[in-house]
Amino acid sequence: MIIYNGIHVGKKARHLVASYDWHNAVHQIKLVEDPTEAFLIRRQMIRNATKSIDLSIFLWREDETGLALMQELIAAAKRGVRVRLLGDGVFFLREPDKVSAMAQSSPHFELRLYNPVNQRVASLDIRILENLVLDFTAINHRLHLKILTVDSKQTLIGGRNIGDKYFGLDQDFNFIDRDILMHGPAVADAENAFELFWRDSRTVTAMKLEDVAASEPNTAWLNQSPRLTIPEDKEVDIDWRTVNKVSVWYDRPGLIGDGNGYNPDLVVDRLVALVGSAQSSVLIETPYLVLGERVRALFHELRSKKPELPIVFLTNSLASTDNWQTYAAFQAQLRSMLEDFRFLLYLKKPHSLVERSGGPGTISSLHSKTSIIDERYTSIGSFNWDPRSGIWNAEIMVVIDDTSLATDLTKYLEPLWSPEAAWVVAKRRQPIALAQLDAIGSTIHSTISEIIGINIWPLTNVACFELIEGKKPLSPYHPDFHEHYRSVTAFPGVSIIDQRRILLNLLQPISGPLTPTL
Description:
It is a single chain. With 518 residues, the chain is of the alpha+beta class. It folds into two domains: 28-222, Endonuclease, Chain A; 250-517, Endonuclease Chain A (Endonuclease, Chain A, 2-Layer Sandwich). Helix content is 34%, strand content 20%. The chain has helices at residues 11-19, 35-48, 64-78, 96-103, 126-134, 136-140, 187-198, 210-213, 219-222, 267-276, 293-305, 324-339, 354-357, 387-392, 403-413, 432-452, 481-484, 499-507, 511-514, and strands spanning 27-32, 52-57, 82-88, 109-114, 147-150, 154-158, 173-176, 179-183, 203-205, 241-243, 246-250, 282-285, 311-316, 344-348, 363-366, 370-373, 377-381, 396-401, 422-427, 462-467, 485-487. It has a ten-stranded mixed beta sheet, sandwiched between helices. A nine-stranded mixed beta sheet has the order 9-4-3-2-5-6-8-1-10, sandwiched between helices. The longest helix has 21 residues, at 432-452. The protein is globular and about 70 Å long.
């Protein structure tokens, strides 16, 4: 059932996109994709700061890179740079003694947390369940902006949190991610986004939180020497690229995207308009893919107007994802994604493209959030294509109108839909009787599940496929697809006794009502 009525496609969508605030001016940008380079650029920016550092982050790990970058921030503060660090009030760092040590490290260092629960950083206890029932909206509104701005001259925006997994240094699991480094007039927009949340009434100074104020600061941890394999003196030579049309889209504090009409202040509605403007191609890279009502309405309308438009999604398989709970909701929607919207879905294999995540021999997981529309518009930032980003989280995206950039980035992403790197999602070829039984069950499910919100027909004829050696790649909608591909089950690379798979199958039937929070 498509209930969202704020959708615009075609000319109306293109008019909306043109109406947003664009900087028609020279900007220097750099796409930051290599994980080691991502760490080095952050370190360089902090070390080179002379006046101010504003850093907004969702999650900060207390591992080696987390410790190293925290020490760099404190060192900058001690040399007189004004350092402002803004974290999410639940996920930033749930260690009161370490947060206390950070917050008291220097008079020039200020740490604030957005929308903490129960006035604590270690808030994931039984009391959060009480608030979850009594004030669901307040708890779910999280700060997901990832911004680093230095001296009001340069800003870095993207998908990375702070931790070893984001910089290629974890021994088991690392992320493929993307940031955009930028200087030019749009830097002021990143500053405005930070300032809105920094001064919002939901934002609390760290030392005013109960458990932080009561904790003995863990200076011993803060003064450790990080065990990094990255040389202390290594730097990055920035190869700048010039673009001339840039816009920065960001959510406002407290703005919840659960309305039924178009709202230009919501990142999700702007992205829906951008995708709705597509005339020739839609390419979206997202670690989590779950369709909320407004996004379903978008693709319903877009597909009805553009039946042949290629809509490509690059996302994780169960074997490569870090979030099986979200994958349960994704799995429950696969039939609709194929039958209703004719998506081309490519699911990343767990050990493919490890050179991009930096950890040889480890699982490599997609974490970058990028959309490319008509090989013209490129959006890069923190927005995942799921209802959590669309409804609850505060997000930020840099959008660039530049065909050369879009074309080059599309070529960079091509390996992610190659047979070596990804499985293709398609419907199985079933015997006639089984196909009819599945169709009956699907019809019953589509009617009743919309009423009660529970998947009463968990069986599905959707699976992952890999290319048969010697055959050429085909679309899953091509009549000869099954002669070129073989099924590798719905969850290739994951054992049937794997805990993720067992829990996913248990959660999937009730994932509908839980979709906005997964």
